[in-house]
Amino acid sequence: MLKLRLLTAAVLIPLVLAAMFLLPPAGWRVFLLVPLAVAAHEWARLSRMTSAGEAVFIAALLACIGVLMSDAMSLAGQRAVLGLSILFWLVIVPLWLWTHRRIDNRLILAVAGLVVLVPTWLAFAVLQRAPVLLLLLMAVVWIADTAAYFFGHQFGRHKLAPRISPGKTWEGVGGALLCIAVYAAVLQYVDAVAQDEEMLVPYLLAMTLFSVEGDLLESWLKRCAGVKDSGTILPGHGGILDRIDALTSALPLAAWLFAVR
């Protein structure tokens, strides 16, 4: 399994980095449609949509993205989309996870899927204007996830959300925040992020907390659906949602803070 995971990563990471750094903005936005469509299919599967329902859901998703790709979408429109995402992760998701509510209404789940996936596409699109910055912000999620696993494995005693993801602990979250604070301090020291440098630590810590929510929400959806992975498209890794769950919550916040605010 480890060999398979490494082989998949060895193919996937260079492909994504090449697209991120070499494609023009229009090409990057089209490139993003492929993984987003797969993620939408996986969301539909977790939501137990019918084939017709999934087709309508994906069509609605692509229509929303079409509007975002058109010249009609102003900076104010982008702010509105990203702001909606931030409110969703600040208010709706904490209540959803805290109450352990199992939602069976497919329309509600479809709307939630649009609120999760459309701002994710937009965040990737607007942040790619500065690909180094996008990579540094994506690294926040990767570092936080790795640190949470290490600190949780070594020191974890208090479960974060035992009914949702029994392996996650408060100690893991604390370790992730600590490592991200150090990461932010290093970025400040080397002057890697020119804008809002004095706010870099709180911004990246906020991203870390949002990333935990994204991870937990997908875990809850999978638990409700009775599946281990969101899909099987990435050998050894599961589905697209399994790989971008934390990014769906953290990157729209990052785009708001660093690109469109």
3D structure, described in words:
- By secondary structure, the chain is mainly alpha-helical.
- 77% of the residues lie in helices and 3% in strands.
- The chain is built from nine helices and two strands; from the N terminus they run ααααααββααα.
- A two-stranded antiparallel ribbon has the order 1-2.
- α7 runs antiparallel to α8.
- The protein is globular, with a radius of gyration of 18 Å.
- The mean pLDDT is 92.
Short characterization:
The chain has 261 residues and is mainly alpha-helical.
Task: Using brief descriptors, characterize the structure shown.
single chain; 261 residues; mainly alpha; two-stranded antiparallel ribbon; 9 helices
Radius of gyration: 18 Å
Please list the strands of the largest sheet in the order they lie side by side.
1-2
In terms of quaternary structure, what is this? Answer: single chain
Average pLDDT reading: 92
Provide the fold topology.
Blueprint: H1 2-22, H2 25-46, H3 51-69, H4 75-99, H5 106-127, H6 131-155, E1 159-161, E2 165-169, H7 170-189, H8 200-225, H9 240-260
Antiparallel strand pairs: 1-2
